[in-house]
Amino acid sequence: MMDEKLLINLKKQSTIIRKHVIEAVYHAKSGHPGGSLSSADILTALYFHVMNVDVKNPNWEDRDRFVLSKGHCSPVLYGALAEKGFFNKEEIVKFRQADSFLEGHPSMRYVPGVDMSTGSLGQGISTAVGMAIAGKLDKKNYNVYALLGDGEIQEGQVWEALMSAAHYKLDNLIAFLDHNGLQIDGNITDVMSPEPVVDKFRAFGWNVITIDGHDFVQIIEAINEGKKTEGKPTMIVAETIKGKGVSFMENEAGWHGSPPNEEQRNKAISELDEILTKLEVE
Ligand SMILES: Cc1ncc(C[n+]2csc(CCOP(=O)(O)OP(=O)(O)O)c2C)c(N)n1
Ligand SMILES: [Mg+2]
Questions:
Q1: pTM to 2 decimal places
Q2: Which of 122, 150, 194, 273 is buried deepest, with most CB atoms within 10 A?
């Protein structure tokens, strides 16, 4: 069982990262809050409990890698990296502004801690497969993590990458599917259904685990199981809520790529602060 104190710390950390997401898109007056909020707990577990990284040496060759294949969710990655200490938190309110290194889609050239530039959906997972193959060839112990969107997997390239990962027995690769059920225009099942995703991933030769993507115990146990699995890559299908943590954004496709106005920003921040206050008491 997970230590109670660790659990509360992870919950606090993900709430703080959610606040960064809101501030980033509010100040930029653009960006993608919905899918950033749905994946905040996964990134928190990775960066604050699982991944072996060095903030002083972001390009350390033995580090674990993370590829945000759904690159539009840069606000959650920037929030996690800033909280981890890769760069100053004050940069976050400059998100998407002309003189900022925090572009709408993450760039590995400019942002310390970003392992791959992403944004064109479908491509990130292929680069994660490449990193995992490199790790095997170089006899390195690092693991590669990737996060895919459930709309993103409509891209054919994703399935080529999944096929390669199984073929090369990449048990150093653990991917997450942020299964929030929504893409830019509505329900994934209405637009172009990728279901049944679990059966498809299994048929492509992956070890598949389904979890509640907002439950830290389940996230961490699934990662541990993935690490132990030999001869196969692991796909963690995380059932999530798009917009999680901000009441009026939850399960609303309209919040995929819209920024909050001042009133909405204030409401979102006060809801998240309320969660933090409750966690302080626990
Ligand atoms: C190749 C490509 N086509 C279209 C887009 C525009 N786009 C950005 S986000 C998005 C929807 C993604 O939905 P999903 O993968 O479910 O993301 P999430 O719900 O996690 O935000 C689209 C079509 C893109 N970034 N790349
Ligand atoms: Mg989605």
A1: 0.98
A2: 150
